[in-house]
Amino acid sequence: MECKQNQCQHTNPIPFNNKFFCKFCGIHMPQDGNVAIKSTKFLFPGYINPIQNLKSQWNRSVPVAQLPSDYQRQRLSLIDYMMEWSEKLGLSINSLFLAVQFLDYFVSQKKVDPIQYRLYGATCLMLAAKSIELDERIPFISKLRRYTYLPYATIDFRKCECQIIKQFNWNLQYTTLIDWAETVMSLGIVYEQDELSQTETILKEKATNIIQLQQNNQQTKQDNIKEQLETTPKKSTFISKNIYNKVQEKFTKLCLTLLKDGSYLDKDPSELTLSLIGCVRKICGLKHPLPNCLLELYENIQPKFQDSIADLLSKQTKQPTSVIGKAFINDLDFFSLQNYKNRIL
Predict the structure, then answer these.
(1) What is the mean pLDDT of residues 104-132?
(2) 218 within 8 A of 251, measured Cβ to Cβ
(3) SS3 string of the chain?
(4) What are phi and psi of 238, to 5 degrees?
(5) N or C: which end of the chain has fewer CB within 10 A?
(6) Any idea where the Cyclin-like domain is (predicted)?
């Protein structure tokens, strides 16, 4: 993905809430002069302070303690199904996150028959698409039935849809973790002045020297090169576009990891996002996980979950990438087994 770097001169900063943003590209302009690297995907004019705007929006937290035990056991497999359906229907990742939030909140507030969890999951996916997708991408009930293989009639989907909408009091506006992630990416979380703990140049030099050593059998030259490598001081370098792409990719994967984990559903999304930024920057090898220019933007927000997220990642086992297997074991219904051959063909 092409990076938005040095294409905008940031000549027209505008203030919002004592913070400055570029009027043309929307990048946050910290007082220390750091310049953020930004993808053209997140290019937008700066008219507001997005962080303050997100914090002021209504956020419906999910009371984890109220989630039924049956649902908690099936939740991971349900998300796997919803990810598969979302991919087949061509929906965005924003619709997936919104649908899972709908399902989590509804099940925590309303008693649902465990055998119908997937019916409600598919309906939540349709409602999420209706909320944020373009009209041509919205999967209506006929298409939803065809892609999900669920043995329910159209009237069942309609009843389910009405129940969810009434429970939400007809308010389907919800700020998800991926919304926060895209917002902070648009403001910039990687800077040109960022430094790595060890430069790519030094690593390339070491690789080149190893190849040369393999081709040259002169023991004296080999010892000299090894000594030179060991005594070369580690230096820092300015950030590259490849690092930015890596940070962006890791950020999205970490958001999916937390979505599947389910233990952060009732946490403050601003604190969770800042914690994710620190984890991602550290994983990608940046010298300072949370530099002052980032803390300046997220004032009065603390990265309370950075250590717990890092601990989760260190203990994380490989998540199932397909619904085949674990999903069938956990579900209480049997109609997926009847469609097993159709799902894998």
Answers:
(1) 93
(2) no
(3) CCEECCCCCCCCEEEECCEEEECCCCCECCCCCCCECEEHHHCCCCCCCHHHHHHHCCCCCCCHHHCCHHHHHHHHHHHHHHHHHHHHHCCCHHHHHHHHHHHHHHHHHCCCCHHHHHHHHHHHHHHHHHHHCCHHHCCCHHHHHHHHCCCCCHHHHHHHHHHHHHHCCCCCCCCCHHHHHHHHHHHCCCECCCEECCCHHHHHHHHHHHHHHHHCCCHHHHHHHHHHHHHCCCCCCECCHHHHHHHHHHHHHHHHHHHHHCCCCCCCHHHHHHHHHHHHHHHCCECCCCCHHHHHHCCCCCCCCHHHHHHHHHHCCCCCCCCCCHHHHHCCCCHHHHCHHHHHC
(4) -70, 155
(5) C
(6) 80-166
Per residue in 164-192, pLDDT (tens digit) is 999 988 888 888 888 888 888 888 888 87
Percent of the chain past pLDDT 90, that is, above it, reads: 24
